[in-house]
Write a structure and sequence with these properties.
With 427 residues, this protein is an alpha+beta fold. The protein contains 15 helices and 16 strands. Helix 2 (66-73) links the parallel strand 3 (51-55) and strand 4. Helix 1 (27-40) crosses helix 2. The longest helix is centred in the middle third of the chain and has 21 residues, at 192-212. It is globular and about 75 Å long. The protein starts with a strand and ends with a strand.
């Protein structure tokens, strides 16, 4: 990067687990609440931003270009452009990367960037036969034509299509995201016990982090229309145990599978924002950066092995900076599935994979587990798809500052066969 990209501040909402019904907040509600609170504590006014960039994988029909909707709701004014990006699970990270590019090009100097999704509000859709029947009904002009359409109707037409299931199915591989995790579990010999143990540890780490107040600096409470206060991530299961998780049945491959709801990330609602600035904005407003983004990288691989995306994206960053896996103080690897994170860790230890797929002379080695997701991850916190890429960058920086660490990498797998990574440095 030809000029420093500073992180000035950041905030997120609590991550709220979907509970088989639309959640209490729309995506724009969450993004507006977190963004307004974040902007209220800055040394600049909202209308002094150059732009607002928001990642969102599943905006509702009444929130098209949700980035502009939220920018206006936050009081940024009509002149501050607001726009939306989508890169599936890394939409929030893509928003940050888009801000970096514009700051590097001199188009912007002060940007609010982040991500959001309210997955509990993913729609139920009509099936294609039902839509065709509706079209025929609307085209019927006479009583006879109407009666003919009534006779053609079948009750099965009313069976809903679950929108989020379609969204989480890769159209090229024809597999749900969980099935791609099953592929990696088979390839790397990851057992059900391995996955469940990883999931229990994620819950344990999140519980310890909540008790120690490690999320307090980044969470902005939400208040519902009924006055209910949502102040903490609510997907945590403090009683998680390997014995309890062992009782759950595989979801994606019911006969031979190992991936269950218990060792997968949760369907969740949430929003995350970061304020990014170039040197000119830091000087103009007297800002005090808390960190900087040192490097970023995107990568592609087979859609059916998309969970290895973090390996392919983070490795070039390590090479550019001549770093080993344990030269970083911390890692945040988004926990889409326990199997997927374990597969990433094993791929870096695999001589053949590192030579043939990454172009390295041999295995990169083993990351110290104490450096990875030190406060837990999406298995316990949830994975609001559009927000997760920004959350792991924000939390990585906050945890580096808390522990006295200097640098780390946040990496994420992306549906469609992609990976994203960002290297940050604490100041």
């Amino acid at each position: 990067m030809n000029q420093p990209i500073y992180i000035i501040d950041g905030a997120r909402t609590p991550f709220l687990k979907a509970r088989n019904a639309p959640g209490p907040f729309a995506a724009s509600d969450m993004a507006t609440a977190a963004g307004s609170a974040l902007l209220a504590r800055q040394r600049f006014a909202p209308d002094q931003l150059d732009e607002v960039i928001l990642g969102c994988a599943s905006p509702s029909p009444d929130e098209v270009n949700i980035g502009r909707v939220v920018a206006l709701r936050m009081g940024c004014g009509i002149k501050v452009q607001g726009w939306t990006v989508m890169r599936n699970c890394a939409s929030g990270m893509q928003a940050l990367d888009s801000a970096i590019a514009n700051i590097q090009l001199g188009r912007s100097q002060l940007v609010l960037a982040g991500g959001v999704d309210a997955l509990s509000r993913a729609p139920l859709l009509y099936s294609d036969p039902m839509v065709r029947w509706f079209a025929g009904w609307m085209g019927a002009r006479t009583v006879g034509q109407k009666l003919a359409m009534v006779k053609r109707f079948r009750p099965g037409y009313l069976a809903p299509v679950i929108g989020i299931m379609k969204g989480l199915t890769d159209p090229i591989a024809g597999q749900l995201m969980g099935q791609t995790a099953e592929n990696l579990a088979f390839e790397y010999g990851i057992t059900r016990a391995d996955m469940d143990a990883y999931a229990v540890e994620s819950h344990r780490r999140v519980a310890a982090a909540q008790d120690a107040g490690h999320f307090a600096d980044e969470i902005v409470p939400l208040v519902g229309t009924d006055g209910a206060v949502f102040a903490a991530d609510d997907g945590l299961r403090r009683d998680a145990s390997t014995a309890g998780l062992a009782k759950l049945k595989p979801f994606f491959d019911k006969k031979y599978g190992r991936v269950t709801p218990g060792n997968s990330s949760q369907i969740t609602d949430g929003a995350t924002w970061l304020v990014l600035a170039g040197e000119a904005a830091v000087e103009r407003f007297g800002l005090e950066p808390i960190g900087r983004i040192v490097d970023s990288q995107w990568a592609g691989l087979e859609p059916e092995r998309m969970g290895l995306g973090p390996v392919h994206a983070a490795t070039p960053i390590l090479q550019r900076h001549r770093l080993g896996l344990n030269d970083l103080d911390q890692w945040e690897i988004n926990e889409a599935f326990a199997a997927q994170v374990i597969a990433c860790l094993r791929a870096w230890q695999d001589d053949d994979y590192c030579r043939t797929r990454l172009g390295l002379p041999g295995a990169l080695g083993r990351i110290d587990p104490a450096r990875v997701n030190i406060d837990g991850g999406a298995v316990a916190l949830g994975h609001p798809v559009g927000a997760s890429g920004a959350r792991i960058v924000l939390h990585l920086l906050q945890s580096l500052r808390r522990t006295g660490g200097r640098r780390g990498i946040a990496a994420i797998c992306i549906g469609g066969g992609l990976g994203g990574a960002m290297m940050v440095e604490a100041l």
